[in-house]
Design a protein that fits this description.
heterodimer; A: alpha/beta; pyruvate-formate lyase- activating enzyme; eight-stranded mixed sheet; five-stranded mixed sheet; 12 helices; 18 strands; 34% helix; B: alpha/beta; Rossmann fold; 2 domains; ten-stranded mixed sheet; 9 helices; 10 strands; elongated; binds iron/sulfur cluster
Chain lengths: 329, 277
């Protein structure tokens, strides 16, 4: 239940605003000028807000489509992302959003049509390159789909450009609109997974690994392409056993021909972000791991990162081709 | 230091009377600029600010200094308010505050409670044209403005009880009636305040320096940077080591840097046991 919904005056009559409001009949609606006056204020506590977040409906003015950071991608020469939303209904302890935003309130940008125009524009400007778009970099791309309908809205654009890939990265078990429409070759349904035991401690409010595997399998059988994102790779006692168990389970539950790609990503935080997250959760077991500061980045020791990546890659190679495996940095 | 702390800023003594009794606060035995009360445990402090924005702002910062409030102290402003919309005698949580100088702010996460919410207009002069205004007072915006410089917004709460409006002339409001209005809403007030007590206590548990930090700091000399390293290392180690284990690790150390190294080495070899969590 969302108690309060703040609505920017500019979009208070937008049809999407109205339809979202209808889904929260018991909420209190408060008109505001700009979402930033609530969302960007300093002196807020992300952890406390996360217990009972409010929703902000806003208009995005610019920066609809952006280049992804270096090292983020699955083989295309150019990678872009867009976020129709800030923040997430889940609460993963390693999530970078908790160090990036000062507020845990959800922001939904209702002017989807401006995203459409920017996406088309980027495609037109990169007509000779292989490009991939990532939906929901600053949120989980599908977790709130039943409220936003963003995926349903954006998919027809990619139907027009079959050579352009789009990845929906999620931890949700959202099946719609994907089960109801014809699968598209250029859409990748990507799922972030960590071993069950780690997930039950770190992936707060997130559907269990077994439920996620079930949905992946259903979507794969329906004909959608699947991305597996073992990202971040989490270290700890018996990590080899835990990852082996996870990978075997996944590869034995999903039709392998449906797997588009696998990516392996280390646990990394920019130093300042780590400091903020550590201050929010100083008693978090994850942060008792051997983490080092190197070039402004906090991560496991390079040897640990390497060992984990190689281990997971070798296991994956039993099932998939080398060209399907990517390492993120 | 006390684990939980709450600071009250209230304009009138009639508004404070019921609160003072309930939380067993007594006038402090010291000459102060404003009347200040506290309970024996020194967890609750209350200041009588008098009417108006300037008084409220000054009293809030004065109470902060006098009462040694922390960053996770909860701040509460409660009082009567005029209203053109709400129900006479009912209490409301404030979720939007504005004044005539175009100051607008929004309190953050609030307690899950059945109390209804309203916006508050803080004015410099008493207003009797209540039309379309949810709540009207003379202190709230100044209180919030100062308190949000002292703590994060989640720790600040404004509650208002409707005492006058188009149907209830302010001229008929007596001191006794104000006390009565507060008394009628005391259970609801206490419920909300217990949320803020817990919030403050939980934050204190999360943020306070581990006790062992003081013990170690008194045995070795640490620079400012080392102190912060030590504090962070101890917070991490405390998750999987007890104090004795930590002291055993460093008892042979000759210098502060060797203490830090020893603690660091312990972290370097830690493998989180996910099945224990
Ligand atoms: S699902 Fe992703 S975006 Fe959501 S909390 Fe977890 S890591 Fe963050």
């Amino acid at each position: 239940m969302i108690e309060t919904i703040y609505i920017e005056k500019k979009i208070k009559n937008h049809p999407r605003t109205k339809s979202i409001q209808k889904k929260f009949k018991k909420s209190r609606f408060i008109e505001i000028d700009k979402y930033a006056e609530i969302f960007n204020k300093r002196n807020q506590n992300f952890r406390i807000q996360k217990a009972n977040p409010n929703l902000i409906l806003a208009h995005k003015n610019d920066g609809f489509v952006l280049r992804t950071p270096e090292g983020f991608g699955i083989g295309s020469s150019k990678n872009f992302y867009f976020s129709h939303m800030y923040n997430c209904i889940y609460d993963c302890r390693y999530c970078f959003l908790q160090g990036m935003f000062s507020s845990a309130n959800y922001v939904i940008f209702v002017n989807f049509e401006d995203f459409d125009a920017s996406i088309k524009n980027v495609i037109d400007q990169n007509i000779n390159s292989k490009i991939t778009f990532f939906s929901g970099y600053d949120c989980d791309s599908l977790a709130l789909e039943n409220v936003t309908g963003f995926a349903k809205h954006i998919l027809p654009i990619f139907q027009q450009y079959p050579e352009v890939e789009i990845e929906f990265r999620t931890k949700s078990i959202q099946r719609e609109p994907f089960m109801s429409i014809e699968p598209m070759e250029n859409v990748i349904m990507a799922y972030s997974l960590i071993p069950d035991l780690m997930s039950s401690s770190l992936d707060n409010k997130v559907p269990s690994i077994s439920k996620r595997i079930q949905v992946i399998s259903d979507l794969a059988l329906r004909g959608w392409k699947i991305g597996l994102r073992f990202d971040p790779l989490i270290h700890g006692k018996d990590w080899k056993f835990l990852y082996e168990d996870l990978l075997e389970k996944v590869y034995n539950s999903i039709p392998l021909e449906a797997i588009h790609s696998v990516s392996l990503g280390p646990l990394r935080f920019p130093k300042k972000m780590f400091k903020d997250i550590f201050n929010l959760y100083p008693h978090e077991p994850l942060f008792t791991s051997p983490l080092y500061s190197n070039d402004g980045i906090i991560s496991y020791d390079t040897n640990i990162e390497e060992e984990m990546s190689v281990f997971c890659k070798n296991l994956t190679l039993k099932y998939l081709d080398n060209s399907q495996i990517f390492r993120c940095y | 230091m006390n684990k939980m702390s709450v600071r009250w800023v209230i304009a009138l003594k009639e508004e404070a009377k019921v609160i003072l009794d309930y939380y067993e606060m007594a006038l402090i035995n010291k000459k102060t600029l404003y009347p200040i009360f506290k309970n024996i445990e020194e967890t609750h402090w209350l200041i009588l600010s008098g009417i108006g924005r300037h008084n409220s702002a000054a009293a809030t910062s004065y109470l902060y200094t006098i009462s040694n409030a922390s960053k996770w102290t909860s701040w509460i402003n409660i009082g009567i308010a005029g209203s053109g919309k709400g129900d006479y005698g009912n209490i409301y949580l404030v979720d939007k505050i504005f004044n005539q100088n175009s100051f607008i702010t929004y309190p953050a996460t609030m307690p899950k409670s059945n109390l209804p919410k309203m916006s508050l207009l803080t004015t410099d002069i008493p207003i009797t044209n209540y039309s379309s205004k949810e709540l009207i007072d003379m202190e709230g915006s100044a209180f919030f403005d100062i308190a949000s410089k002292l703590t994060s917004k989640e720790f600040i709460c404004i509650m208002k009880i409707i005492s006058d409006g188009p149907e209830n002339n302010i001229k008929q409001l007596t001191k006794l009636r104000i006390i009565e209005l507060l008394k009628l809403n005391l259970t609801k007030i206490a419920q909300v305040v217990s949320y803020y007590e817990n919030l403050s206590e939980n934050e204190n548990q999360i943020k306070e320096r581990p006790e062992i930090f003081f013990k170690i700091s008194s045995n070795w000399h640490f620079s400012v940077t080392q102190s912060s390293q030590l504090e962070n290392l101890l917070r991490r180690l405390k998750v999987f080591c007890d104090n004795k284990e930590i002291m055993d690790l460093i008892k042979q150390c000759k210098s502060s840097s060797s203490v830090i190294n020893s603690l660091n080495n312990k972290i370097k070899t830690n493998k989180v046991n996910w099945s224990d969590i």
